[in-house]
Amino acid sequence: MVVILKQKAKQEEIEILTRQIEAKGVSVSLVVGSDVNILGLVGDTSTIDPSVIEANRIVERVMKVQEPFKKANRMFHPEDTIVDINGAKIGGKKIAMIAGPCSVESEEQITEIAKEVKKIGANFLRGGAFKPRTSPYAFQGMKYEGLELLKKARENTGLPIVTELMSPYDIETFVENVDVIQVGARNMQNFDLLKELGKTNKPILLKRGLSATIEEWLMSAEYIMAGGNENVILCERGIRTFENYTRNTLDLSAVPAVKKLSHLPIVIDPSHSAGKYWMVEPLAKAAVAVGADGLIIEVHNDPANALCDGPQSIKPSKFAKLMEELRVIAAAVGREI
Ligand code: PEP
Ligand code: MN
Q1: In angstroms, what is the span from residue 272 Cα to ligand 2's centroid?
Q2: What 3-state class would DSSP assign to 212?
Q3: At what angle do helices 191-198 and 214-226 cross, to 10 degrees?
Q4: Torsion, CA 160, CA 114, CA 128, CA 280, rounded to 10
Q5: Residue 210 falls inside a structural domain
Q6: Residue (of 211, 92, 213, 88) closest to 154 by Cα position
Q7: Are residues 204 and 267 in the same domain?
Q8: 308: CA distance to ligand 2 center in Å?
Q9: I need a surface site. Which of 30, 119, 200, 232 has the fewest CB within 10 A?
Q10: 270 in any annotated domain
């Protein structure tokens, strides 16, 4: 339920109304917008009679939220959320560019790629240290050593690091050492992991599950937000369909859908969507045109010998050309890169 307040509502009056609603066992959050102030009610609102609330002189209107996600709902927060990562932002006019290899492979590899993507204009460095591989015999990542190498690359370039967390046991280490915690597609419904992340205030890049609907994905965001962490960035990375030419099917319609339903920023991962390096460029362009707030792209200096996802990785030279072309598309849709 959402309570829209009148412009003239005074602070003390809002507090009295808040306490009155909280006494019914419902949690209330005040959202101060530039045009309108609202109270977002989360919990069992069946005990609340909307007509009683509407009778209050500071209340403009009471609206029921149909969707099961509340804090992630745009009704709770009419303005777009901008997640601030020590000054680097995701959301808003500027499109965030997250680039780097699928996995950290060595100090030389991650440092060299970090320097290249920084020079080209990326705002964040990606790189997996813990890898969720389909086969237990495939490269599982450099783990803690990989995190240390990412930190060195950050020291060298100033780029904030985005990396995947797989286990709740490592949350403290990640909170201490990384800038954005990625929850991979395979863990989107690991509810214990999401609940623990909700207790932190780290920005979370929440990838869409392989077969998750948009509503299920937003409910996963809700798990994190319900714990108090509202720094959630959504990431569409392709979904499972009957089509098997591409690794996954990029659901570009998720961008306008999420923008309508939610205030959270959404980034597109064209690399895992396509699974093919030559499709990264056209899909990235389409993502910017459709309104994505950012892109996460796998860039490798030696894709042929990459330990993971080489076939979908582009070289720095191709990334540089893509950035130039994306700037033109961004300007055409009122954004910048
Ligand atoms: C990745 O970003 O390297 C990754 C494993 O992504 P996803 O969870 O989308 O498969
Ligand atoms: Mn990958």
Answers
A1: 6
A2: coil
A3: 40
A4: 110
A5: yes
A6: 88
A7: yes
A8: 6
A9: 119
A10: yes
CA 185 to ligand 1 center in whole angstroms:
6
Length of the chain: 337
Instruction: Identify the CATH number of the domain in which residue 233 sits.
Output: 3.20.20.70
Count of structural domains, the chain: 2
Range of the domain at 165: 83-332
Cβ–Cβ under 8 Å, residues 217 and 204: no
The preferred substitution site among 269, 283, 295, 300 for testing ligand 1, maximizing ligand atoms within 8 Å of CB, is 269
The amino acid at 225: M
Could you give the C-alpha distances from 230 to 158, 208, 244, in angstroms and in order?
A: 25, 17, 36
Nearest residue (by CA) to ligand 1, atom 4, is: 184
- Is the distance from CB of 153 to CB of 163 less than 8 angstroms? no
| In a domain? residue 281 | yes
30-86 tens-digit pLDDT: 988 877 899 999 988 888 999 999 999 999 999 998 899 999 999 999 999 999 999
Looking at the structure, tell me whether residues 161 and 41 fall in a common domain. no
Place of tokens 């949350």: 171
pLDDT digits (tens, 9 = 90+) for 272-317: 999 999 999 999 999 999 999 999 999 999 999 999 999 999 999 9
Looking at the fold, whether 263 and 307 belong to one and the same domain comes out as yes
